[in-house]
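re: that chain from earlier
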Amino acid sequence: MLEFICCSMLTIFPDYLFRRYWQGKRLGQEITLFSMWYELRYGLSSCFILTVSLITVIFYFHPATSNVSSYFRTVTILPEISGRVVEVGVKNNQDVKAGDMIFRLDDSRQRAAMATARAAVVEVDAGELLARDDLRVAQANLDAAEAAFEQTKDEFERKNTLYQENSPAVTVREVERLENLIQERLAAVDAAHSAVESAKHRVEIQLPAQRDSAMAALKQAEVELSKMVIYAGQTGRIEQFDLRVGDYINPILRPAGILVPADTGRGRFQAGFGQLTTQVLHKGMLAEMSCVSAPMRVTPMVIVDVQDVIPSGQVRPSDTLRDPQNAKQPGSVIAYLEPLYEGGTDHLPPGSKCEVNAYTNNHERLQDPELGTGTFIALHVIDTVGYAHALILRFRAILLPFKVLVFSGHH
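^ sequence. v structure.
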């Protein structure tokens, strides 16, 4: 409507002045409601063409969208394991800092497991002391066996020498007995040596492995025990939290609530523009934004980035081929906006519903001395009609409370 009124001042109104003062036709006589089209046909046709052209230029070079919001992240308050609540440290809608306790689950089973793991470590340490005693005993037995072997060997060599000299003091039976005893002593030495090696392996390999296993079980028990206390991972605000002592919470069936981080969704907005504006939108483009949460207020913004893909083309592997005719929505070009001035959006809560006008600026191109006259005029027209779009946005911001509170049926 605003564009039509502006265009009519350049087309219909001059046509009427020509008919009235040059041709002498009067309103209500020659110019009536029934003869208006014939009398003002040039002005009406020019107004229609100019209005359509102006709207096309405005909405193409200065695109607008009402699909604007600031998306924020939420963190589900959820334990890793199930349990019964024994202590609650926060309330709903409470601000928390990173590291604050939210709630604690019954940890009697985890504490019993940790005590068992500690006892296993003590048992392994005690077994190591006994194994070292066994090693010393085995070493002593080896020394004794070697000593007995050497003694038997010396006795055999002495009596065997006498026997070889045909001494009547030594009999054949005695020599054979000592030979058999040497073999027995040698077997005892081998057995004692094996016992020493076995004791060493137990002290150096088996018991350290058992202790590592016991320490790992103790560490696992400590980790499981630490999972029974749920802390806030980030600074934020607790929402939808109604946990009571005695409640049974399950990580799959029942989350405890939601934590909204304090630094998420603030100062950054996402706007979905039509695909027709793909060649117009660019990083650094100025914009203005009006939000429902802050009516009658326009915030200067700047486009900091433009997503290089369109969401409607996203595909996921499946057992059916994607048919383009099933994509009913063409998808939007997503632009990311931030306030032009620091703190410009502090008054807007995350999730606000807004509308945005982006403005094409040809100031740098107009400084080119080699720019043609036609292009110079066209660029000036493009920049100038942006004021009309800015004026429309302000009218909408002013009328927004009346539209929502009066005409939409809200009470």
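The chain has a mean pLDDT of 84.
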